[in-house]
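TASK: fixed-backbone design
INPUT:
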């Protein structure tokens, strides 16, 4: 890994990883060189991850998962998907592992998924320790004393703290590593009997070789297995989550499910509320426009024209190979505000001219002509200001390009479309309003002292 171009250095930690802990776990941190020293596209983060995966695939004695840090620190362990398979039936761990293996294998075959990984295994070599309660009772020692003695010598036991030389020292009891690595080491560990004598704990226990999981975890109070997955190049996290839902529906038996964790959980909760939030936003905008124009029909001239600019935003993102990420969505929100302002001003000018006595078509044409120069100045100023972001490089370049490309595409296509669509929609909806609710027009004309 240290020989991969772009990697500054590596640091290894044994016995622990982001997904598990144990004697067969490890993790390697690989900080990258400074951005200014990685000018070659082959030294981008995605390229480096692919090279590390290719290098580590040659290691046949290890299962290696390559992860990048999360975009938001504190939300999970990686930037990919994190979720937990859940067993709602309470079946055996071996059965749960078979379900997990089938799910991960099928998930890895999906085009939206780059890699799917879970290091859970129910086949770790272990010893099952049985305490002979009858022997303990005859010898005058309780089984809990035997177990606590073994736990202290092998796993460690906190004793006390003491102060010396103005420092606090932590005292933990544990046998030396060389004295706790074999089955025969139990002969050298003694437990105190009721008469004060000492006896080896091996007299009271029986070790049986077995296989089992190295650790068990729960999520929402159900047995769970953690699974990590990364979106394939060219696919967003939302598309990868759709693939997870599709595979879960196809492969998970009845009584099994999954729940996201970390940043994926926040994204999933946000995605589920998108339709409701969008509907409420449109309703609020419509009500504001109704109050502005005092009309139930005329606001549709604005609401139906703005989506054209949004389509232009996603068209530019498709042309430049950008993903539908949070930066592009932020640009869309900005774009909606700018296009709405333009559409509102066009409609407002047309309404004033209609109230002044112009014909509907004449009022629409006059408003578009009057607002042509200000609209072009606003669009050009916005586009010229965002062009440097479209060609951004360095840290955060993807976010800058996504934000700028979406806004530029939406402003360019949306503004041109608004110059034609808003006047056309105004003619349609203003005609509908005057024919369906003519009293409103008569009152306006009388206020202006004009003949209807």
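OUTPUT:
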């Amino acid at each position: 890994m240290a020989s991969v171009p772009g990697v500054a250095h590596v640091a290894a930690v044994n016995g622990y990883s982001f997904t598990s802990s144990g004697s067969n776990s490890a993790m390697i941190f690989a900080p990258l060189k400074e951005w200014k020293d990685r000018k070659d596209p082959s030294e981008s983060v995605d390229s480096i991850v692919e090279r590390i995966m290719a290098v580590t695939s040659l290691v046949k004695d290890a299962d290696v998962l390559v992860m990048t840090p999360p975009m938001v620190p504190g939300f999970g362990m990686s930037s990919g998907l994190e979720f937990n398979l859940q067993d709602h039936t309470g079946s055996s761990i071996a059965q749960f592992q078979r379900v997990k293996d089938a799910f991960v294998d099928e998930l890895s075959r999906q085009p939206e998924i780059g890699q799917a990984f879970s290091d859970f295994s129910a086949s770790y070599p272990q010893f099952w320790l049985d305490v002979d309660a009858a022997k303990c009772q005859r010898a005058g020692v309780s089984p809990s004393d035997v177990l606590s003695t073994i736990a202290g010598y092998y796993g460690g036991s906190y004793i006390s703290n003491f102060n010396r030389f103005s420092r606090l020292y932590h005292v933990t009891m544990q046998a030396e590593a060389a004295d706790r690595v074999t089955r025969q080491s139990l002969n050298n560990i003694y437990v105190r009997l009721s008469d004060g004598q000492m006896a080896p704990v091996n007299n009271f226990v029986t070790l049986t070789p077995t296989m089992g999981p190295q650790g068990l975890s729960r999520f929402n109070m159900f047995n769970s297995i953690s699974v990590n997955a990364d979106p394939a190049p060219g696919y967003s996290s939302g598309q990868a989550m759709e693939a997870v839902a599709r595979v879960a529906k196809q492969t998970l038996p009845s009584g099994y499910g999954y729940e996201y964790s970390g940043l994926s959980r926040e994204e999933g909760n946000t995605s589920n509320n998108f339709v409701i939030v969008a509907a409420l936003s449109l309703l609020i905008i419509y009500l504001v426009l109704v109050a502005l124009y005092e009309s139930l029909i005329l606001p549709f001239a604005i609401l139906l024209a703005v989506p054209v600019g949004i389509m232009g935003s996603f068209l530019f993102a498709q042309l430049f190979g950008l993903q539908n990420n949070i930066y592009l969505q932020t640009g869309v929100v900005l774009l909606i505000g700018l296009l709405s302002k333009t559409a509102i001003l066009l409609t407002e000018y047309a309404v004033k001219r209609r109230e002044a006595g112009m014909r509907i078509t004449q009022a629409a044409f006059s408003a578009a002509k009057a607002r042509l120069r200000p609209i072009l100045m606003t669009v050009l100023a916005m586009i010229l200001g965002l062009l440097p972001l479209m060609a951004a490089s360095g840290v955060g370049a993807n976010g800058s390009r996504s934000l700028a490309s979406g806004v530029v595409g939406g402003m360019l296509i949306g503004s041109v479309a608004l110059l034609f669509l808003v006047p056309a929609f105004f003619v349609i909806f203003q005609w509908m309003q005057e024919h369906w609710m003519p009293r409103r027009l008569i009152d306006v004309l009388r206020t202006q002292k004009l003949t209807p």
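COMMENT: The mean pLDDT is 83.
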